[in-house]
Amino acid sequence: MRKDTLGLIQEAMDFIEENLKSEIEISELGKRAGYSEYHFCQLFQRVTGLSVKRYLVCRRLKHGLYEISKGVKKQEVAFFYGFDTYAGFYKAFYREYGMSPSEYLKVYRPSFPYRVNLLQEGKVMISKKIMEKLLAHWGMEQSPVTNVVYEGSNQVSENEFQVGEDFVLKVSGLPGGLKRHMEIAGELDKVGLQASVPVATKAGELLVQEGEVYAVLCKRVQGTKMSGREMLTACDTKAAYRFGTLIGKLHLALANLDAGLCKENRLQDTVQDWALPVTQKKMSIPQELIAEYKKRFCDVYDKLPKQIIHRNMNLSYVYLNDEEMVGVTDFELSEYSIRLFDVCYAATGILSENFADTAENMQKWLKLYQSIVKGYDEVVGLTEEEKQALPYVVFSIQLICVAYFANKEQFAELVKVNEKMLARLMECREKLIFE
């Protein structure tokens, strides 16, 4: 499909998102896109995997559920999103999710349903019909399909589905991330790390396509997961150390891959050109710390070892066999960057998911942080430049978090949490130096 056509469908989806609480005529959407209603509906379903009507209902249900989870009355939610009664909302929800809104909220924690971006993120919405067509490539169209839920946050994945007991289907509107995952998973499998290795279809293919939906079926990594909450509550430094050694083993394997497989991200430029200026408008940062950051981090940045990294390294993607960490999943966001990013992201991820603005909480986390870094150092050996850069990489990650959420009204609470985190990290920056 031509990119300009994809852009027109994106514009229609954006219009829907902005008018979910208003009446939307499908014929008007077609006119806005420059197509007949029939042609527009055909293109829309091909791109999104859903009819226009069903896509609209799904988006209203997602937003409605989120508002219910935030305490808005069910009857008001139903009325706001175009249902005559809550019973109508209930029936539509049950058809899509197989359970009532109340039952869903007892099991899952809905995140804010930010808009789908076809051109950048490759996100898609999968209908039952498209799901069956995709799984038919493997002869598994009759297999039970369930949601994949992230440990700790209890949020539902939008691009992964568990198929039966042993497989996970990854879907996307763009093939690049899936291809990247396949190549990385294959490399890790060679060194004995489990990593959701792709399974060939009946025709011998690894990546399949139905309309504009791409998919790959992977072996489910066997094992259990440890939550960051458990690790922090128990101040389990031994588990944190093992986490660090796993990242080290992962990096040794990823270092064998061609750097051209992933796009490069210069962390220093991202922070100085965007994250720092945005964050300075949101909160007060000591000028001496900014000057120190710019000088010391800039002086050392180009000397830091770089390679392909995971980029989203947290415990949600790590699997355990007893106490041994044996597998890592989800490499769609992998990029070429400083290897220290994964180490610091792993540590700050534990804090951000369980942040409490207390001295006890920070003391526990600092012990976990040091243990993760120590475990990583034992496997790969940190350079002197990396040891100097550690505090500044931690700050960089936190500055990016604050800047990312800063202008998004739906994430106002997360902005406050990340601002407090950054303030605490600045206060204890000397303790971020590797001991």
Structure description:
The protein folds into three domains: 3-107, Orthogonal Bundle (Arc Repressor Mutant, subunit A); 128-219, Phosphorylase Kinase, domain 1; 228-432, Alpha-Beta Complex (Aminoglycoside 3'-phosphotransferase, Chain: A, domain 2). The chain is built from 17 helices and nine strands. It has helices at 3-18, 26-33, 37-48, 52-69, 74-80, 86-97, 101-107, 128-136, 176-190, 228-233, 237-254, 267-282, 287-301, 340-353, 359-380, 384-406, 412-427, and strands at 145-149, 156-163, 167-172, 208-210, 213-219, 306-309, 318-321, 324-328, 335-338. The chain is globular, with a radius of gyration of 23 Å. 39% of the residues are buried. The model has no long low-confidence stretch (mean pLDDT 85).
CATH C-level of the largest domain: Alpha Beta
Strand content: 5-15%
Q: Encode the helix/strand succession as letters.
A: HHHHHHHHEEEHEEHHHHEEEEHHHH
CATH architecture of the largest domain: Alpha-Beta Complex
Annotation, overall tally of beta strands: 9
Q: Would you identify the CATH H-level superfamily of the largest domain? A: Aminoglycoside phosphotransferase (APH), C-terminal lobe
Shape verdict:
globular
- Name the poorly predicted regions: none
Largest sheet: 5 strands, antiparallel
Spatial strand sequence of the major β-sheet: 1-2-3-5-4
How many independent structural domains? 3
Radius of gyration: 23 Å
Roughly what is the average pLDDT, rounded to an integer?
85
